[in-house]
Every structure is written in structure tokens, then in C-alpha cells.
Amino acid sequence: MMFEHGVAFRLNDRVRRIVAPNPGVMTGPGTNTYLLGDEAVAVLDPGPAEQSHIDAILAAAGERIRWVVCTHTHPDHSPAWQAIAEATGAEAIGGSPPDDMFQDDTFAPVRELRHDDVLSTDEFTLRAVHTPGHVGNHFCFFLEEEGVMFAGDHIMNGSTVVIIPPSGDMKAYIESLQRLLDYPLRAIAPGHGDLMGDPRAVVEWLVEHRLQREAKVLSGLVALGRCSLDELVLNVYDDVDSSLHKMARLSLSAHLIKLRDEGRATEHAGDDTWELRAG
Fold first, then answer.
1. Which of 41, 102, 185, 235 has the fewest CB atoms lying closer than 10 Å?
2. pTM of the model
């Protein structure tokens, strides 16, 4: 569907979506900001510190905003929190930024999230689901009344997410995907792109996709022997446009770290090369 930036589009009785004006290769149509509730509003993933987007959020909910909730602290998801909190007095909720690349270091939650924390109002019940993988402080949020999982960058519509070491972790990512199947899901609301139906099929496909890529990493190590990341990325991601190989290199590192920790690959830190573990 078409996405109109700055418009509060109603998805159901409890949720509206405003798409930020930051479309791109990594963000799709733009970052989705979700407004939950009508009387007491939670802003989920306030998005980039783009004034027109902040203005659209405030115009849609204004003084009714009570909370600003962040799935994680990448620059396309959280920086607008501060302007919204200052304008409304809203409580910031989320995980503190890890010591990692690409982080919004301004984010300072008043309420530090833990798995299974609940934000409950007369209108909705929002349950935090810790989903490390993309980055270590990533949370999804389950809207119990609607059966909707707000997935942030854990699941995107239209592409797979980059796993970013050191706080990003491929093993944790796969396990976190499988954790979502413990909930009675009816739809997934991603951080980028439209609502996704058939959540079980979506999650199962993503798990299988990562395992297939892992198999390709192993076959690449067989074919190349001891090799660098730059050599291996050309082999493992030969189905991905070369303009995306810089980001793919991050996910490749995450795959290799998983294989190293499982005793299936060896890292040679001295020259930044990898090979299959003998035996």
C-alpha cells in the first residue's frame, strides 16, 4: 500500500500509525510510529528527530500523550522521544543504549524495561517481550486486546534485518524469533512496512532463512578455506546487491560468531580471518 508521511492512519480501534519521512534502502517507506489509545496515549517508536514528524505526532495526540516507548535506540526509531517528552511530560520507557555502533545516545528512559513488563490502561494492555538479536536492547511489544505484536526492527516487512555485533547476536535473534510464537498472535506491526498477517508463517520463514544463510556460510568456508570477511561476503551474499554488502558484512560477522561459539568455526583475530574448525 501507499504510505503518506505525517498522516495518523487508523489500523484498528486502539492503534494509529504515522510514517516518518525517512524512506530509504534500510527503512523502507519510513519508520512507523504507532499511537496506542485515544484518551491516554502511548507513542511507540517516536522515530527520528525530524520536526515535521514530531509535529504530526503532537497534532494527533498532543496533551493526551502519557508515555513514549521505544523498541530500541537506533537513530531512525528513538531520537524524537526527547522533543515529545519535553512537550507533553510523557514518561520515556525502553532499554538504555548499549555501547555499540549506530546508537541514539540521547535516549534516557525513566522506566528501564524488563521482559514481561506491562503498560496497562483502560484502553489497552501492552506487554514487553525482550527480543535481543538485532541489538541487545531490543524489545517487541504485544498488544493483548488485538493480538498484535509491534516488532520494531526484529521483523520488517519487505526485507530482513541486519544483526549488528557486538550487542547484536545471531543465536539470540533466532531464539527471540521463536519466542514470539509463545504469544497468541493475529498480526505483526513492523517498524517498517505494512501490517503482516499469518504471523506464524512469517516467523518460521525468517528462522529458516537465517539457517539457510548459516549453511551458506559453512559452504563458503569449505570453498574458500581460511578467508577474510570481505572475501566471504562475496560468496555468502552473492544473491544480494553489492551496494548492501557493507551492511551484510555485519550479519555475516554475527553468523560467524555464532558458529565460533558453537565450536564450528575458528576466528584468527591477528589477521581477521576465519576458517572451519578442524575435526
1. 102
2. 0.94
